[in-house]
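Summary of Year 1 activities. Much of the first year was spent building the evaluation harness for sequence design. The harness presents a backbone, in tokenized form, and records the residue chosen at every position. We chose the following record to illustrate the format because it has been used consistently in internal testing since the harness was completed.
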């Protein structure tokens, strides 16, 4: 951490002259200043980074020459080193992302002839908008607002104005790249979360230039390969109210710190409701038994007595349907299924006349 006093001293070395001791507060990095700063001093501070960490006092002119060529005034600016060239190079590299993919990305529609490194600035409710940036040639700053602060609706116009001005300033200039140096720095890959050396369990890592003393020569202890018990309802650590049947073991690559918020202590109303699930005896489900198949009823076929000789049935019998009319079957009936028996002829007894019926004449057949 930089700390308030160190940050305040850096601001003074960057040439800010409007600071007071009452500005040594925690809101200092957010611009919580009593008098604020001027755009001239803010632009000069950014120019220090473009000049490899060397602060150059801003001046309106450098030299005055008379008609005969003699030098009347040689205005040499005061300079001093604020940060190392390596630190300035790293800050320049970081602030190029502001223009490439950050809040200053709209500049790409107006200015593309040179690489740009800079930073946008905004106050509450967008009442003040600023953009200070530099190229390998020049540094420029712009502020947009009102004398009586009010919210600005167009929050990108100040960037577009900067691009239009610098496009004309750089017209005809050869494209350059920023001078960079990494002296005193090492290139290291660290875990994006812990800043330690990454392991196979780290979900992401990044590589960059760092001071050797800032590289932690220890493998990441945040992302470990370990098993923990979690609640399936929230994927968090279980509490006293998580049902046992909802707990599971998982292999996690990062520490789980949140506790299940789905299962909480029951309210007074819920506690007063009795659990009647065990009040009634358990009735087993009815057992369905398969019914045994009943034997088929055998109806005996009635036939004549064994001592009575049976005649073979006529395969084409005549069945009388109506008196005086008959119909003959055209399809023979199976003998084993239908038997039509011939009626038994019982002979009538011979009549012998008596004395009482001598007048009756009987002619035997």
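For this record, the design step produced the sequence shown next.
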């Amino acid at each position: 951490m930089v700390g308030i006093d160190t940050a305040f001293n850096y601001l003074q070395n960057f040439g800010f002259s409007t600071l007071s001791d009452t500005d040594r507060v925690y809101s200092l990095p957010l611009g919580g200043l009593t008098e604020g700063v001027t755009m001239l001093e803010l632009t000069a501070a950014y120019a220090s980074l473009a000049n490899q960490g060397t602060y150059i006092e801003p001046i309106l002119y450098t030299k005055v020459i008379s008609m005969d060529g003699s030098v009347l005034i040689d205005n040499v600016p005061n300079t001093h080193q604020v940060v190392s060239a390596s630190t300035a190079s790293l800050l320049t590299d970081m602030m190029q992302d502001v223009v490439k993919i950050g809040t200053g990305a709209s500049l790409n529609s107006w200015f593309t002839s040179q690489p740009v490194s800079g930073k946008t600035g905004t106050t509450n409710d967008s009442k003040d908008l600023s953009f200070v940036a530099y190229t390998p040639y020049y540094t420029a700053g712009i502020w947009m607002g009102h004398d009586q602060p009010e919210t600005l609706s167009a929050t990108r116009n100040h960037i577009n104005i900067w691009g239009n001005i610098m496009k004309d300033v750089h017209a005809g200039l050869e494209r350059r790249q920023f001078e960079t140096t990494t002296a005193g720095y090492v290139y290291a890959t660290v875990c994006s979360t812990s800043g330690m050396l990454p392991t196979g369990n780290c979900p992401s890592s990044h590589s960059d230039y760092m001071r050797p003393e800032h590289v932690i020569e220890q493998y990441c202890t945040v992302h470990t390969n370990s098993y923990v018990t979690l609640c399936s309802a929230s994927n968090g650590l279980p509490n006293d109210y998580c049902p046992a049947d909802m707990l599971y073991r998982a292999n996690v690559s990062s520490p789980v710190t949140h506790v299940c918020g789905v299962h909480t202590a029951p309210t007074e109303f819920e506690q007063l409701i009795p659990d009647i699930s065990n009040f009634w005896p358990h009735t087993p489900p009815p057992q369905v038994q398969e019914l045994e198949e009943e034997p088929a009823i055998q109806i005996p076929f009635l036939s004549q007595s064994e001592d009575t000789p049976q005649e073979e049935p006529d395969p084409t019998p005549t069945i009388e349907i109506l008196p005086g009319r008959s119909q003959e079957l055209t399809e023979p009936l199976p003998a084993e299924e239908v038997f039509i028996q011939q009626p038994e002829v019982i002979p009538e007894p011979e009549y012998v006349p008596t004395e009482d019926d001598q007048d009756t004449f009987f002619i035997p057949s």
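The longest helix spans residues 85-100. Quantitative recovery figures across the full test set are reported in Table 2.
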